[in-house]
Design brief:
The chain is an alpha/beta fold and about 475 residues long. Helices cover about 45% and strands about 15% of the residues. The strands form four sheets. The protein has a nine-stranded mixed beta sheet. Strands 2-3-4 form a three-stranded antiparallel beta sheet. Strands 1-5 form a two-stranded antiparallel ribbon. Strand 2 and strand 3 form a beta hairpin. The radius of gyration is 23 Å and the shape is globular. The structure holds iron/sulfur cluster (SF4). The site of iron/sulfur cluster has 13 residues, from helix 17 and helix 19. Iron/sulfur cluster binds next to helix 17 and helix 19.
Length: about 475
């Protein structure tokens, strides 16, 4: 019987450059000019044979009738993309203290050094560590957040040693990360971190003036002290033992190129052009520090262009947000970025053990609790992991973040790479269930996926090679 190409289920969207992107059930995609798209829909058999073969390989065209082989292939592709959600909590965040020397306007949580009441008890630290081993995941990341965890290095050390002792029999692969300003970092801490393979993550918002404006401390030398910490860490632990994150405020918008250049100057191989989140105290300061989704796009696209500029001049530096998006779009295997998983990884692949004795589904959820919205507490530290994963909060988050349940997502061509972020909805509107297109999360990601698809469509071979390298899970994972 002659092969007559049939349209397979797809979703499509017009891009700003006039082309149309269509995605299939497997998450494969193709670009069409408007006339090609009409032809594709009305008479696919009249498209050039080479293009038909391409569309068939991407599951946009196929035969009539049931094809168990194709169905199995699509099912296994979708399963591979969701694997990170299904294998149990792998990222465990412990918040030993909220104490911090900084008073950043956009910070949601920190407390001054004199404020003694915001520290985790030893009993809770040990209980959190024991819960971590209840996870089925063979590979575990344990991250210490704050406040500034190095202010309570004793608690970080206690947790690492407790986990290591138990791991003698558990034999998991554990990766430790401490997120800190590095102002307190000293050689003794580095010796400990070296012995236990602890990585450091710090904050650099950009050049000195911008960083010091965003992150004030009494001596107005936050930048200098963090850079000193980075240098010490690199000297004693190795160049790649410390990574940096930046937060975009309204002061950052004018000069993304200077921010990227600063990361290059400091020798970082990654930069994450992160938008400001509208949680907690940052929300109160939105008028001062905030900006529209469109302004963030403009900033982001200029920043990405600068990163690509450096790469084309032989400087290896990745933009982490692009890595995350490209991983979703180009890779068969998901890197596990929580905010774009469906159902969400918050409360399933990530758990946060907070200083207040409660477990939260994500870092953002515990930040919300600081402003009085404690509705996302999953349970007390020390409760069996199974109870936490089956808690009402975890179940509601899963329902609210499943693309099949969200009206706006059902027709969205990006629903294989993205999904609603209910924690974001809770922060913005006080409820997990809100029409998805109203949320900043949706508006931002629609725009970012649009932009990345346009980049891919026009990329030459070298740029496409770079994008495939960035899409690999190891490059994309950063929560
Ligand atoms: S959240 Fe928005 S961009 Fe993401 S899949 Fe749903 S509709 Fe699409």
């Amino acid at each position: 019987m002659p092969y007559i190409p049939q349209l397979q289920p797809f979703q499509a969207r017009s891009l700003a450059d006039g082309f149309i992107v269509a995605t299939s059930r497997s998450g494969d995609f193709a670009f069409f000019s408007p006339s090609e798209f009409d032809q594709f829909q009305s008479a696919p058999a009249t498209l050039p044979l080479e293009f038909q073969a391409e569309l068939r390989a991407r599951f946009l065209l196929g035969d009539t009738g049931p094809h168990p082989g194709t169905k199995r292939l699509i099912t296994s592709r979708i399963a591979a993309k969701r694997e990170t959600v299904l294998k149990g909590p792998a990222l465990h965040i412990i918040v030993p203290t909220l104490q911090c020397a900084h008073s950043c306007q956009y910070c949601q949580v920190s407390r001054s050094l004199q404020d003694q009441g915001h520290t985790m008890s030893i009993t809770d630290i040990e209980a959190a560590c024991d819960t971590i081993f209840e996870s089925a995941s063979q590979t575990l990341t344990v991250e210490f957040q704050g406040g500034d965890p190095l202010i309570r290095f004793d608690l970080v050390k206690h947790a690492v040693l407790h986990l290591q002792r138990r791991n003698l029999s558990e034999q998991r692969r554990i990766r430790f990360v401490v997120a800190s300003t590095l102002h307190q970092l000293d050689p003794d801490m580095c010796t400990f971190f070296k012995e236990y393979n602890v990585y450091l993550s710090t904050s650099i918002d950009g050049p000195r003036d911008l960083h010091n404006r965003n992150r004030p401390i009494p001596g107005r030398d936050s930048y200098e002290r963090t850079v000193k910490g980075i240098e010490l860490a690199r000297e004693l632990l190795g160049h790649d033992a410390v990574a940096a994150l930046m937060t975009t405020t309204s002061s950052s918008l004018a000069d993304p190129e200077a921010i990227v250049d600063e990361y290059v100057r400091l020798g970082f191989k990654d930069i994450f052009l992160r938008p400001l989140s509208s949680y907690g105290f940052a929300k109160r300061n939105q008028i001062l520090l905030g900006y529209s989704v469109q302004k963030f796009f403009d900033f982001y696209q200029r920043g990405l262009k600068r990163v690509l500029h450096w790469n084309s001049h032989g400087v290896e530096i990745r933009e982490v947000y692009a890595c995350i998006l490209l991983n979703k779009m180009l890779s068969t295997f998901d890197a596990g970025y929580v905010d774009l998983q469906s159902p969400t990884g918050a409360g399933s692949s990530v758990l946060v053990y907070n200083y207040d004795g409660y477990v939260y589904p994500s870092d953002e959820a515990r930040m919300l609790a600081e402003t009085g919205d404690k509705s996302l507490r999953m349970g007390r530290i020390g409760e069996p992991l199974e109870n936490l994963l089956q808690s009402a909060v975890a179940r509601s988050l899963a329902v609210a973040s499943t693309v099949e349940n969200a009206e706006g997502c059902c027709d969205c061509p990006y629903n294989k790479f993205c999904g609603p972020n209910p924690v974001d909805a809770q922060a913005q509107f006080g409820t997990l269930f809100i029409p998805v297109e109203n949320t900043e999360h949706c508006q931002r990601h629609k725009g970012l996926f649009d932009a990345m698809f346009m980049e891919i469509r026009t990329a030459d071979e070298d740029l496409l090679d770079l994008f495939y390298q960035w899409a690999r899970p190891a490059a994309g994972v950063r929560d």
